[in-house]
Sequence to fold (314 residues):
Amino acid sequence: MNTTNKRLLTGLQPSGDLHIGNYFGALKPYVDTYEQYESFIMVADYHALTSVQNPEILRSNIHNVVRDYLAAGVDPAKCVIFRQSDNQDHTELGWILNCMVTVPFLMQAHAYKDKVANGIEPSAGLFAYPMLQAADIVLYETDFVPAGEDQRQHIEYTREAAGKFNRAYGEVLKEPKEMILDGVGVVPGTDGRKMSKSYKNTIPLFGTPEEVEKAVKSIVTDSASDKPEHVYAIHSLLKSSSELDSLYEENKGHYGDLKKLLVEDLNTFLQPMRERRQQITDEDVRQVLKDGAKRAKEVSNKTLANVRLAIGID
Ligand code: ADP
Ligand code: TRP
Fold:
């Protein structure tokens, strides 16, 4: 039940299949708390256009992300599930916020710098990405944004842009706070780097038990250490440290056995969500998005009207 009158919003890009890092970093914190707030969850499809430029793949990813939200336990009766591109207010406010910040400021964005360093083409869209995200957040007068550690700076940028707007035009936009949980800020991937769709080092959230097993088997381990640290880090998302410490002590040095235990625990955890996902039809997804678009606009239209009035375009 909404007890606080505060707003919660998060979003995921439909840029590929979700992995357990997305789940524990962003989706689970949302699912665990969203009923206490007036909550929104978005499919950030215009953001995904910075990396997915194949229409069939994008269309299918969008659909899949909505199914993933529903399967992960997000109830459309208790929050607004919507697609960013169904609401033009996002692109409009994104442009306005772009006019509030400077090029040197945007050039310092870690996500932009990392992507360019990894050889991704620096499109103008990728560069302006943080202001589209800022628009996503402030349009709904969001108080809290559950996300992984890598999103901290984007939320700081949102506060910065909203603050700058407010100093220029009066108090119109609310400055949000991040909600980043201890211990799940960065879930490691199978190669020890941050788990990410773009690094191909993921454990899929809705993969088959065999796919989960294959991914876990490929987790890198350091032969000089008794404890396989990445296996342990992922296991600690499912079990308490006291349970794990004795398990890892009993199986000291037996990496294969520890990985087997992790596969079992992951599959036990993921199975109910997999089953729920199979029950969701295309029609369910269409209905959820249709209803979500209407409810999202009712809120964002008001913020945008205030912004337009403030800037003199009303
Ligand atoms: P990816 O890096 O796989 O493309 P996104 O950038 O689409 O993931 O992130 C979607 C959400 O999932 C964000 O809130 C992000 O912080 C969270 N997230 C992504 N990877 C991880 C991770 N390895 N650990 C914790 N949270 C993560
Ligand atoms: N940038 C986020 C990511 O890569 C996705 C996103 C877009 C988002 N708009 C948002 C997250 C608004 C939280 C709030 O994961």
The beta strands are 7-12, 38-43, 80-83, 144-146, 177-179. The first strand starts at residue 7 and ends at 12. The two ends are 37 Å apart (CA to CA). The mean pLDDT is 95.
